[in-house]
Structures are given as structure tokens and as C-alpha cells.
């Protein structure tokens, strides 16, 4: 009875509510097809509209992006970013506007802006590094005994790595490295080699014969060779060019052991930077390039063990057997790690930075960098930069 009286409202009710279970029972009404058609075309219209609004770039958007890129360009110039490809990128963005390639124009403008933003960030980082180094230099001042430097760092940080050997702390005032350095001083001042001259005319970056604080500003770029050099390569350079030693003379080639000229000289020269803050210059493009290359090397995993330096040296408190490993990201720890030449108790010899570096690669079962190669200096540049601002411990004493 009810059905007979109310057939249509019931059906339309089902259709409006879209109750699926009932729909197949519904007899089709003449208006149903038109409504369905309407719905389909509405859906089609939406499908067509979505890409238009989401993907298509309007001229206005492209122009806004170009204006923003120009604004960032101005800021970058003001911040001191020179030598940037962004001008051409912005020109390119503008050049495709007349042919209505708005998406492409937008892309060029976005890239240009990103490029300038990144350059500004890098510049700020560099300036910050320099400021940290300069401030630390002012604060640290001049020479300090290695043990005093280390105890100062321990008091400041309570680092497990720094304080792991009471025995070493006790032995430091009588370190055999002191003898090595004293021998080095004599050798440095003695007229030697075929030219019979001393090394007092050798320039380690702060002027001929200036050794105080010279080592903590190495590696650095040298005009006379056009290269970034570390202590060892600079010493080799002076022994050959000033003193006239042949490159295959044992004075040049023998670099390992406390009894070699090299270790005596290096230990002496470095010891005059004890307590000075690490502050290798980053003004010359090659100084930056080598530091950056060293960073890549530090994080690159390779070899059969798939190790990178960062596998062992990027967290605090890591141990291998009894040794607590230094963390490169904590400059107060890292300064001790890179304080070489140092006396290695286990070897009963003073060892150099280059020697330590090869030991690290051996430890990773990777090919050893050639002594004095650009790769070795890249790593030394990077590891010294990571300790910037912290006082050097020269000569340190190691396990
Ligand atoms: C498998 C872990 C491991 C890897 C990988 C490794 N090291 Fe080491 N590193 C050590 C250990 C262990 C020591 C302490 C050595 C010792 O006491 O004889 C050490 C010592 C050092 C030191 C001297 C620390 C000190 O106390 O004087 C430096 C600097 C260093 N490594 C740098 C590097 C660099 C750079 C690399 C990559 C080229 C590297 N290490 C890769 C484990 C590692």
C-alpha cells in the first residue's frame, strides 16, 4: 500500500543516498541518464582542470620567480659572492619568456636563486670558521707546554678520549719527543747540504725563519711553488732548494723514526706551535679545494671492509679494544687526534702526520696515499680545519 502511494519519492531517495545494495533494483527513470551524463562531464572537466592549475606555469609566476632570483642575486653580491653563474641563468630565464616557455623560465629562476643562496651560505660558513679561529687565537695566545694544553682541554670537556691514559699524562713532562725536538733545533740551525746553509731562511708561511705559530697554519698555499704544502713537503722543498740536497739523499728520503733528520726537524718546528690555535688559512681557492677534497675522502666508504674515516671517527665514546677513538666533530677532542708529530709509546718513536695518515688507510685496508701527494695534503687540510680554534698539543704522547 505504501509502495503504491509513494513509488517515486522512495526511488529518488535511494538515488540521492546512493545506497549501493538497493541501486541495482531501481528501475531506470528517464531523468537518470541525463544526471549521470552530467556527473561524468563534471568529472571530466575536473580531470582537465587539475593539470591546468597544478602543472601549468603562468607568465606571472615565471616573472615573479625571475624577480626573486634578481633580488637574491643583489643580496649575494652585497654579501660578497663574486664569480657566480647566476647572471647567465637569469638571462636564460628571461630569454625563454617571449616563446611562452614559462615552466622553463621558472625552473631557471629557481635554480639561479638556489645557487646564490648556497653560495651565500658557504661564504657565511667560511667567515664563521675564520672568526672562530681568530677569536681562539686571541684567547689562547702563545706558547703553552703540551701537558698544560691537554689538562686545560680535559678540564673543559671531561672527554673520555682525552683523559684515557693517566700513564701518558704522567710521562708527558719527560717525553722522549723533547730530545727529538732538541736534536731538531741543532739540525735546523746547522749549515748543511751541498750549499752549506742552515734552514733559517726557510719560509713556513709566516716569513723566513719564523717558526712560532707557523705549524698550526699549515697546510697552506705557497706562492713560490704554486701548491698547498704541509710541514713535511715544505721541509723537503727547503732542503732541496736552499740546502741543495738531492731528492734521493737519505736526509730527504728517510722519514720514519726518531733518529731521522726529518722527524727531528718536524718535531722541533711543530713544538714551537704548542698551545697555538689551529688556524690553517682558507683564502686561496686551492686551500679551499684541498680541504673540500679531504672532506669527501673522510666520508667515502671503500675497500674490502667498506670503511670510511667517519665509520670510526664521527661519534664520541667509540672504542676499539681499549682505545677510545677521537670524534672529528668535537674540535676539543680532535685537536689531540691531529697533534702530530707525537711520541708513540707503542712504537718507541716519534711519528709524523703523514705517517699517521698512512696508518689510518692501512687500518681501513685501503691503498696507502703517497707521502706528500695532493691526496695526503687534502686529508691533512681537512683534518686540521676540523680542529680549528683549538690549541695544539705539541709534542703529544700517544698509546
Ligand atoms: C676501523 C676504525 C678506524 C677507521 C676506519 C679509521 N680510524 Fe683513525 N684510528 C682508529 C684507531 C683505533 C686509532 C687509534 C690508533 C692507535 O691507538 O694506535 C685511530 C687513530 C687516528 C688518529 C690519531 C688519534 C690519536 O689518538 O692520536 C687520527 C688523526 C685518525 N685516526 C684519523 C683517521 C682518518 C683520517 C681515517 C680515514 C682515512 C681513519 N682515521 C680511519 C680507528 C680507525
Break the fold down into its secondary structure elements and pairings.
Blueprint: H1 2-5, H2 7-17, H3 20-23, H4 30-54, H5 59-79, H6 86-95, H7 102-140, H8 146-157, H9 166-171, H10 177-189, E1 220-222, E2 227-229, H11 231-241, H12 250-253, H13 261-271, H14 285-299, H15 309-313, E3 319-320, E4 323-324, H16 331-337, E5 342-344, E6 349-351, H17 353-363, H18 374-385, E7 396-398
Parallel strand pairs: 5-7
Antiparallel strand pairs: 1-2, 3-4, 5-6
The site of heme C (HEC) has 20 residues, from helix 15, helix 17 and helix 18.
Short description:
The chain is mostly helical. Helix content is 55%, strand content 5%. It has 18 helices and 7 strands.
Instruction: Give the CATH H-level superfamily of the largest domain.
Output: Cytochrome c-like domain
Report mean pLDDT, rounded to a whole number.
Answer: 88
Number of helices: 18
CATH C-level name of the largest domain: Mainly Alpha
- Helix/strand order, N-terminal first: HHHHHHHHHHEEHHHHHEEHEEHHE
| Number of distinct beta strands | 7
Which radius of gyration do the C-alpha atoms yield?
34 Å
Main sheet summary: 3 strands, mixed
Class from helix and strand fractions: mainly alpha
Detailed description of the structure:
The chain is mainly alpha-helical and 399 residues long. It folds into 2 domains: 59-128; 142-398, Cytochrome Bc1 Complex, Chain D, domain 2, CATH 1.10.760. 55% of the residues lie in helices and 5% in strands. It is built from 18 helices and 7 strands. The protein has helices spanning 2-5, 7-17, 20-23, 30-54, 59-79, 86-95, 102-140, 146-157, 166-171, 177-189, 231-241, 250-253, 261-271, 285-299, 309-313, 331-337, 353-363, 374-385, and strands spanning 220-222, 227-229, 319-320, 323-324, 342-344, 349-351, 396-398. Strands 6-5-7 form a 3-stranded mixed β-sheet.
